[in-house]
Amino acid sequence: MNTLDLTPLYRSSIGFDRLAGLLDSALSSDAVSPNYPPYNIEALEDNHYAITLAVAGFTDQELDIKVEKGVLSIRGEKASNEQHNYLHQGIANRSFERKFNLDDHVEVVDASLDNGLLTISLVKEIPEAMKPKTIAINKASKVIEHQSASKSEAKGDKAA
């Protein structure tokens, strides 16, 4: 597989290091990280999102959710190491860690575990300063005449 060198991007841009880091990790993480547990990301409505992970066999005490520096981390750590005599083991009960990069204004609102599905609710809250504003156009513009001091003095001299 060909690799993509992002070094020129780092050399010629300022302030885009987070974007370059995201691209770099996205291109390299798929080859290294396993696809466990499977997950969905869905847009529920404007600025509302949900991430759902299939975590069958995990309890809420075995799951840990953290947000740090714009990265949502979900970690599952199996508490018991009971020995079973499986004839077939198709349900993975291994520990995992999944990370999701969040946009600057995306906040985690809620998390729930139901029927083996962990659902994390997210909301993108755009600050008022960044929301688009409508600027009213003044319909009537006033023309202000500028009179120089010498013209007003001349008019004053004629009146006297």
| Radius of gyration from the alpha-carbon trace, in angstroms | 30 Å
Give the total of beta strands. 7
CATH topology of the largest domain: Immunoglobulin-like
Number of helices: 3
Largest sheet: 4 strands, antiparallel
Question: How would you describe this structure to a colleague?
Answer:
The protein folds into two domains: 1-33, no CATH class; 36-131, Immunoglobulin-like. With 160 residues, it is an alpha+beta fold. The chain has three helices and seven strands; from the N terminus they run H-H-E-E-E-E-E-E-E-H. The chain has a four-stranded antiparallel beta sheet with strand order 1-2-7-6, with no helix packed on it. It has a three-stranded antiparallel beta sheet with strand order 3-4-5, with no helix packed on it. A hairpin with a 2-residue loop joins strand 3 and strand 4 (71-76). 21% of the residues lie in helices and 31% in strands.
